[in-house]
Amino acid sequence: MTQWVYSFGAGRNEGRADMRNLLGGKGANLAEMASIGLPVPPGFTITTEVCTHYYANGEQYPGELQAQVRAALARVEDAVGLKFGDTDKPLLVSVRSGARVSMPGMMDTVLNLGLNDATVEGLARASGDERFAWDSYRRFIQMFGGVVLGVDHHRFEEIIEGVKLDRGVVEDTALTAADWKTVITGYKEAVQEATGKPFPQEPEAQLWAAIGAVFGSWMNQRAITYRRLHDIPAEWGTAVNVQAMVFGNMGEDCATGVCFTRDPSTGEDIFYGEYLVNAQGEDVVAGIRTPQPMSKLRAKPGERPMEDVMPAAYAELVRVRETLEKHYKDMQDIEFTVQQNKLYMLQTRNGKRTAAASLKIAVDMCREGLIDQSEAIKRVAPGSLDQLLHPTLDPKAPRKVLSKGLPASPGAACGVVVFSADEAELRAREGESVILVRVETSPEDIHGMHAARGILTTRGGMTSHAAVVARGMGRPCVAGAGGITVDYTAQALSAGGHIIRAGETITLDGATGEIFIGSVAMIEPQLSGDFAALMEWADKVRRMKVRANAETPLDAETARKFGAEGIGLCRTEHMFFDPERIGAVRQMIMAEHETGRRTALAKLLPFQRQDFHDLFRIMAGLPVTIRLLDPPLHEFLPHSDAEIAEVANSLGVDVALMQRRAADLSEANPMLGHRGCRLGISYPEIYEMQARAIFEAAVQVAKETGAAPVPEIMIPLVMTKRELDITRAQVDRMAAEVFAESGTTIEYLVGTMIELPRAALTANQIAESADFFSFGTNDLTQTVFGLSRDDAGKFLPSYVEKNILPKDPFVSLDVEGVGALVEIAAQKGRGVKPGLKLGICGEHGGDPASIQFCETVGLEYVSCSPYRVPVARLAAAQAALHAGGVDRTA
Ligand code: PEP
Ligand code: MG
Questions:
Q1: Which fold has domain 5-244?
Q2: Which residues bind Mg(2+) (predicted)?
Q3: Residue range 230-240: mean pLDDT, rounded
Q4: Which CATH architecture has domain 255-350?
């Protein structure tokens, strides 16, 4: 017989944490907590298989379910000494959903189930508190009415407001038992009106209705949308948890709270969260009363931390916290209730956290001996390091404060104000930095929150949707800025006499909660402390080297600061755009004959030499790969009439002639046109000048420092061995000339980019003439897919949305297609030259998933933009661990 129901805490614990597929995250962890001796109110979990069965069988439960639920309920009754539906000592239960992964959009919670007109009297007698009993009953009708019966929650609120008005009171707490009875009469009428039936009095009927509502909510529209967005299969199903009620609202010795075992914003080893005395779970999130901090260390003047108010329960919670962290070896997000000074645990799960917290917690836990270095490396998502490498506000920069809210997610962000998620997405797609401003956010806003640089809400606390989601996404967020009024219709916000309209700029500081008018200067992040420690551990583990794509001295310096071990791609054309040089470049392009080109190139030579000299000095002996001119020449063409006239003037030719030349050079498909080594073959003098500049600079550095750099000269867009032979010969000739002139000989390598399918497929031939390959996966992706790099942005996002492509292949390497070619080229190349050096310098070199692929192909290094270097270092370490590499951290 299939076991459909698993008990916990009720004399037996049938589940475990690793049974989350069957029991859902909540159920599995309740069982785990109970089995390690933590105080969990007894209950049972109806498995996700019941959900699957329910939907596979025309919404019918398995035949044995009812009996199994009855038996499990009886065990709960025995454990607590109460009876479900008993008019003297009634057992009340909570009913909660719980999928494998926590999923907004589904039915959440019904508390106090089992109450009716008779059992409420029993509860009043048993608790000795009539007011509590009737308050519990009205809460039950309200929750059950809302989530199970679908009665509009405003109806219930109107009724309470009406009674409060009648009694002349403001706070719910001022209502008496008699008042609650009046409220309940109103509630029951509202239910009758809305559903055409009286409020169900039979506890067992209540229970099955609530269970049915949980399973029903698995297929509601919001849950379906959420699953689609997060790739959660419908077959997973949800579990249902039924658990004996404990009460945080029975008096001043009762409380309820939600907290993290460490600070989820900073990672500090401090109890973080909120609790409320004399309250039930939903009161903490509802925001009617202000929750209080847990720890004294976090209390502001006037606040009443739990540590002071309930020292015994707090001390027990501190012990539980230690047990949980030791057991789960990770920071936990917990829910608890204190009933008459006795602590009960209602939930635990690994807590969501910011990148900063993730790093600190991983490093701290390793130092505390909870996890080892390899585990610490695996704990931090490489992509999340991006957030830590981004600037914060410069403390010295002038600023004008607009208002202040809660520091919900750290980091600073500056952008134009938008008031809807759709608008945020639209403007971000056009390249604008936007700040999404909402009264509060909901799951429907996720796409806009993702597109925004920062998020500002005027309502909600540190555990509000905006705060939690922004922290998870790594977006700076200021929440609950009550001093700001948002007017969606007018598309404006106002605070302290200022009005900011949509499209105007503001700056947020997610670390302090401040909001500033206009933009505020930012500063570079610190790369020491925990960050440096984790990087050091990662460096011990990884096999692949990490280089940077850099050409300016500033980029090269940044790259080194971030730990780059060389330059994997210096795009020399980037050195041509400088105002001092572009004139000579244009002269070179527009010259009709070799002599004219050579004159122009002679002007460029000293600039190039200086550039390479600086790069070699900064990189101090680390490898530097310099790619000869690559882009289609049209990128340098003069565009305006004035520019054309200027070039004509400097060349001493006619403007009309220049215009004709510009027209001659224009190409229908420049990315597939006269570019890459094709230019070097048409105009050998260009590559000759560049090679000469490289060798002269290298010789000069050798003389200055006594250590000769080993330049790696790279030929772009090679499709045949013959092309490489021709261009390589040019380079070798220049080397010989410079060495003869200077009397100094240095070592150098000549290699090629593999960025065309033909090059990959004939890599065995090309390898004969190459000292190294560097995979140019930007062009390789373009040519394998036949997708223009420059135009695909217009329609590719819709391909990803429609799931035609799993990811943008220009961001994350297409392993099946492009990856297959990389593998073929690597194999063929090494087949000819076993020691052939292999690297990657396309954008994918900074993408964690692509780096994982590079490890499997056995590349020597990845090269990425300077800011991505730490991301790549960590990703390369994870890839090495994943590949089962030797753990060198021990
Ligand atoms: C590439 O094509 O992957 C590459 C690195 O070169 P570029 O982006 O300059 O074309
Ligand atoms: Mg390229």
A1: Dna Ligase; domain 1 (3.30.1490)
A2: 755, 779
A3: 90
A4: 2-Layer Sandwich (3.30)
